[in-house]
């Protein structure tokens, strides 16, 4: 059940306000650090003494799982704190933790050290996007918030391209140092960013805030929450399996030249820049978040099929073009988080907007063992095809059964 506060409406801000700029730059550094491991996986593991092809794949998946496990823990932690203590404390606290963890990552001497620091970095990385999207959604006028979150996403995902360039130019250890330094520099931009007025109003009331378990005590609320989580799974199937394991897929497809994970990530995230811009704009033009998401999920399904079954014997250039277009097709990440934020009241909004993307990212922990289990009987391509089909069909169903949230007044609480 929802109810509207009786206090005066909270103040709003403009599209290029300090809040939007800081949220966008925060997500830029977040994506740089989040995706950096996928870019430097092979080089860093080789330097740590892991050189056998199968061992590089298995240890790489282990480290990804540690990072994603940290994001699952951090998603719950930062989400609760965002609703109890405020959006700003999460925005800057998460940046501080992942920046320090990534600086430390540049000094690792063993896979175990690497794994624990990816866990800590994952905890830190879990907070920035949800807090930023919540803050932007609550401070922009309702008819403009889709454009605001589009700016955050479009600027943010380009961080992956910087990660590739820095990793290629300066080596994997220096790439971690740069990521940590960028995060610490971003903390200086705290000046001029203010807390959400909706949160401040709710804070003055006696309504319970940040109760994660309240998402599970009401059947309708739980259904809304579960559907929000499921929408984001296809993106992490694409990034966590298809793109991260681009060298393995390239070999299986008989690509005529070498394929690197770094270039696969670069081109996928370059596509994501355009995809996030297009999906955010489309949701505003269509005046419907759900229809925009449905169109992108269909597009994603077509591109997964192309990636797996239409590239046999292709050149590396054609393969990377497919990675780029595949990136466009999953460029609905910020739109997905925006929908999650718009579905819930102010007292649970940060909890949902922070846990939803991290549980979606964390789905890699489930997808990877399923992928490995199916790989035996179905092969690399067959296993990926089955997982892709299931995740896309479930996500399409989830979008189609969620209430439309475009233009929704967000000044309400969950009771």
Question: Any chance you could write out the topology, listing elements then pairs?
Answer:
Blueprint: E1 2-3, H1 18-47, H2 53-84, H3 87-105, H4 111-139, H5 145-157, H6 159-170, H7 172-186, H8 197-204, H9 219-231, H10 233-243, H11 246-253, H12 261-285, H13 289-309, H14 316-329, H15 333-342, H16 349-362, H17 364-401, E2 413-414
Antiparallel strand pairs: 1-2
Subcellular location: Membrane
Pfam family, one: MFS_1
Domain Major facilitator superfamily (MFS) profile: 19-406
Describe the structure in your own words.
The protein is mostly helical and 415 residues long. The protein has a single domain (13-190, 216-403), classed as MFS general substrate transporter like domains (Growth Hormone, Chain: A). It contains 17 helices and 2 strands. A two-stranded antiparallel sheet has the order 1-2. Helix 1 (18-47) packs parallel to helix 6 and helix 13 (289-309) packs across helix 17 (364-401). The longest helix has 38 residues, at 364-401. The protein is globular, with a radius of gyration of 20 Å. The model is unreliable at 3-9 (pLDDT under 50).
Short précis:
The protein has about 425 residues and is an all-alpha fold. About 75% of the residues lie in helices and about 0% in strands.
Bulk shape: globular
Q: Count helical runs.
A: 17
At the first level of CATH, the class is Mainly Alpha
CATH level 3 topology: Growth Hormone, Chain: A
Number of domains: 1
In spatial order, strands of the major sheet run 1-2
CATH homologous superfamily label: MFS general substrate transporter like domains
């Amino acid at each position: 059940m929802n109810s509207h506060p009786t206090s005066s409406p909270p103040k709003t801000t403009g599209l290029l306000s300090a809040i939007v700029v800081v949220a966008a730059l925060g997500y830029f550094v977040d994506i740089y650090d989040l995706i950096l491991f996928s870019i430097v996986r092979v080089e860093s593991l080789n330097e740590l003494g892991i050189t056998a092809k199968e061992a590089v794949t298995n240890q790489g998946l282990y480290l990804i799982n540690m990072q994603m496990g940290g994001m699952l823990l951090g998603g719950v932690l930062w989400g609760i704190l965002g609703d109890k203590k405020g959006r700003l404390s999460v925005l800057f606290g998460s940046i501080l933790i992942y920046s320090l963890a990534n600086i430390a990552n540049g000094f690792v001497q063993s896979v175990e050290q690497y794994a624990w620091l990816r866990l800590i970095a994952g905890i830190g990385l879990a907070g920035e996007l949800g807090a930023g999207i919540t803050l932007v959604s609550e401070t922009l006028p309702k008819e403009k918030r889709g454009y605001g979150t589009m700016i955050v996403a479009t600027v943010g995902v380009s961080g992956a391209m910087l990660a590739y360039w820095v990793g290629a130019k300066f080596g994997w250890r220096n790439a971690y140092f740069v990521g940590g330094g960028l995060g610490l520099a971003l903390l200086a931009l705290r000046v001029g960013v203010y807390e959400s007025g909706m949160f401040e109003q709710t804070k003055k009331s006696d309504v319970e805030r940040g109760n994660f378990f309240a998402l599970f005590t009401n059947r309708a609320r739980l259904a809304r929450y579960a559907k929000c989580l499921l929408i984001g799974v296809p993106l992490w199937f694409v990034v966590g399996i298809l793109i991260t394991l681009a060298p393995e897929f390239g070999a299986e497809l008989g690509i005529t030249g070498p394929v690197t994970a770094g270039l696969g990530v670069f081109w996928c995230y370059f596509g994501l820049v355009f995809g996030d811009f297009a999906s955010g704009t489309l949701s505003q033009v269509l005046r419907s978040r759900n229809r925009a998401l449905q169109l992108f999920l269909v597009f994603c399904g077509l591109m997964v099929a192309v990636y797996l079954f239409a590239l046999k014997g292709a050149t590396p250039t054609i393969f990377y073009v497919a990675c780029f277009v595949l990136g466009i097709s999953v460029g609905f990440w910020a739109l997905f988080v925006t929908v999650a934020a718009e579905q819930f009241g102010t007292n649970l909004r940060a909890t949902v907007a922070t846990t939803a993307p991290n549980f979606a990212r964390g789905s890699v922990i489930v997808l990877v063992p399923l992928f490995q289990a199916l790989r035996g009987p179905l092969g690399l391509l067959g296993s990926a095809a089955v997982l892709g089909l299931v995740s896309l069909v479930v996500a399409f169903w989830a979008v189609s059964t969620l209430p439309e949230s475009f233009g929704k007044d967000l000044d309400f609480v969950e009771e």
